[in-house]
């Protein structure tokens, strides 16, 4: 990646980062480099101070070294996740510490980078993490045509009327709505709606689809080229929710 590209990716609104790293020279040079890229950067040189800062401030992302003198990076991450903090965390590990990386991801880090690394790679990882939407903050209302889902209450409203859906029908509809015009395979549906692709038979999925289809059809008034939602079967592949002109 060249300097030009990284300049194009500069943040319009500054992202606020916390770097927890005990190697002072490395920490200071990372801070300087990140600030040149337009980030706001706080630095903590030990785990205890880093954890306190991370709990006190609404950072956009954290960069946490594994080996810290007083409280290691993994423990810090575990504490922050246990406290409900959702910001993305990039963990720094020594090259070859495979078990550390796995443990770090298990502890709640989103990604890791092995030392020594190129600064450009750190920037790329950081950008990827900041693009990723936070896990818990999903849009509460999803709309497609005249269908609206209140994802918190798990209620679907079609043409202004609440639909009477069983829990799996609702979950399936929400999954289809989040991917309009995309084909979802039975395996993907089984995994995301039922949580277990091995337990669910194709028949269970087909029955749920067909019931959902009927409820959609009976709730929508067609005619005069009006747009209505349909669940289409893509033979041998899966299902897709799409908008068609009803006659
Ligand atoms: Ca260290």
Describe what this molecule looks like in 3D.
This protein has 247 residues and is an alpha/beta fold. It has 2 domains: 3-131, Rossmann fold (3-Layer(aba) Sandwich), CATH 3.40.50; 141-245, Arc Repressor Mutant, subunit A. Helix content is 41%, strand content 23%. The chain has helices spanning 3-8, 24-36, 47-56, 73-82, 98-107, 119-131, 167-178, 186-194, 202-219, and strands spanning 16-20, 40-44, 61-65, 89-94, 111-115, 141-144, 147-150, 155-158, 161-162, 184-185, 227-234, 238-245. The chain has a 5-stranded parallel beta sheet with strand order 2-1-3-4-5, with helices on both faces. A hairpin with a 2-residue loop joins strand 6 and strand 7. Helix 3 (47-56) packs parallel to helix 4 (73-82), helix 7 (167-178) packs across helix 8 (186-194) and helix 7 (167-178) crosses helix 9. Bound molecules: calcium ion. The site of calcium ion has 5 residues, from loops.
């Amino acid at each position: 990646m060249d300097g030009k590209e990284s300049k194009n990716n500069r943040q319009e609104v500054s992202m606020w980062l916390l770097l927890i790293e005990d190697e002072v020279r490395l920490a200071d040079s990372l801070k300087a480099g990140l600030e040149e890229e337009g980030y706001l950067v706080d630095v903590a040189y030990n785990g205890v101070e880093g954890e306190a800062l991370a709990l006190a401030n609404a950072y956009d992302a954290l960069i946490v070294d594994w080996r810290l003198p007083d409280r290691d990076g993994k423990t810090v991450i575990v504490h922050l996740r246990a406290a409900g903090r959702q910001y993305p965390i990039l963990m720094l590990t020594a090259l070859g510490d495979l078990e550390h990386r796995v443990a770090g991801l298990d502890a709640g880090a989103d990604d890791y980078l092995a030392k020594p690394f190129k600064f450009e790679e750190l920037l790329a990882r950081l950008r990827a993490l900041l693009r990723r939407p936070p896990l818990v903050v999903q849009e509460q209302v999803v709309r497609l045509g005249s269908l609206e889902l209140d994802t918190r209450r798990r209620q679907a409203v079609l043409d202004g009327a609440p639909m009477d859906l069983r829990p799996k029908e609702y979950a399936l509809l929400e999954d289809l709505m989040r991917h309009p015009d995309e084909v979802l395979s039975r395996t993907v549906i089984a995994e995301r709606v039922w949580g277990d692709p091995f337990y669910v038979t194709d028949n269970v999925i087909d029955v749920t689809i067909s019931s959902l289809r009927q409820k959609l059809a009976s709730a929508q008034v067609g005619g005069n080229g009006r747009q209505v939602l349909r669940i289409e079967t893509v033979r041998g592949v899966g299902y897709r929710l799409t908008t068609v002109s009803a006659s």
